[in-house]
Amino acid sequence: MPTRAALRAAVAAMLGVALLGGCSPASSARGTDLTVFAAASLREVLEAVEPAYEEATNAATLTIATDSSAALATQIEQGAPADVFLSADTANPQALVDGGFLSGDLVVFAANALTIIVPAGNPAGITSPLDLAAHGVDVVTASDEVPITGYATQLVLNLAGEPGYPPDFAAAYARNVVSKEANVKAIVAKIELGEADAGIVYRTDAVAADGVTAIDTPASANVRASYAGVVVEASGRQDEARAFLEWLVDSDGQAILASFDFLPPGP
């Protein structure tokens, strides 16, 4: 079976061939510089998207800033210069749309699943989600307003309804939380350093991290995270920003997202 690196190389090669054959539909964005505010969990995939999109447009350049979706939404409200907002949920961009800070409809461009990560070597001996509620297990989460926290809370509630889980599972899990981090990448970093025993993150974050081991969750309890993008109302490059979103949901953008284990948009 080919390695993940080989699959990503194949995707890059495929995109290169396609680009040699002609410009993508987004080629109208020539000579533009787009600032993209993006959820922290998109960091690695956008490092691949950036050169592919810039080559597709022959002149467009992307400036990418990543943080928690909630923090970026606050920055946009406060007037931070951005052209596109890529969120790890639909709630944060919808709130900005309702407030008049974003232009047009939300574009759902990807989805994700959740998993549990533990440090390499798994010193706490966690073998299933049930162990997240065990006495003495240190769990790290993100702040309440960060999308991964809402998804993780729903996952815990779903697990509490699974056969074999005690009725106080959610409460016991909450008692084990020892810190709340700024975003999902900070959760991963804390686990990689061995400063906590476990955390719930997006599956793509577990795949991208070297110093963690993933613990699967039951498919019946897992939560689908939807990623939405939208154009910032204050942007002076709204047409070009929409062209970028269209490219992201088209075949080239979807191929890159898939190579990083993101799921396609949809139910």
Q: How would you characterize the largest beta sheet?
A: 5 strands, mixed
State the secondary-structure class: alpha/beta
Report the end-to-end length measured between terminal Cα atoms: 29 Å
Give the % helix: 25-40%
Number of alpha- plus pi-helical segments: 10
Q: What would the CATH topology of the largest domain be?
A: D-Maltodextrin-Binding Protein, domain 2
CATH class of the largest domain: Alpha Beta
Brief description of this entry?
With 267 residues, the chain is an alpha/beta fold.
Your description of this structure?
With 267 residues, the protein is α/β, with parallel strands linked by helices. It folds into 2 domains: 4-112 and 226-259, 3-Layer(aba) Sandwich (D-Maltodextrin-Binding Protein, domain 2), CATH 3.40.190.10; 114-215, D-Maltodextrin-Binding Protein, domain 2 (3-Layer(aba) Sandwich), CATH 3.40.190. It has 10 helices and 10 strands. The protein has helices at residues 4-20, 43-57, 69-77, 91-98, 147-160, 169-175, 184-192, 203-208, 238-249, 251-259; strands at 33-39, 61-67, 84-87, 102-112, 114-119, 139-142, 177-181, 198-202, 212-215, 225-232. A 5-stranded mixed beta sheet has the order 2-1-3-10-4, sandwiched between helices. The chain has a 5-stranded mixed beta sheet with strand order 7-6-8-5-9. Helix 1 runs parallel beside helix 2, helix 1 (4-20) runs antiparallel to helix 10 and helix 2 (43-57) packs antiparallel against helix 10. The longest helix is centred in the N-terminal third of the chain and has 17 residues, at 4-20. Mean pLDDT is 89; it is low at 1-30.
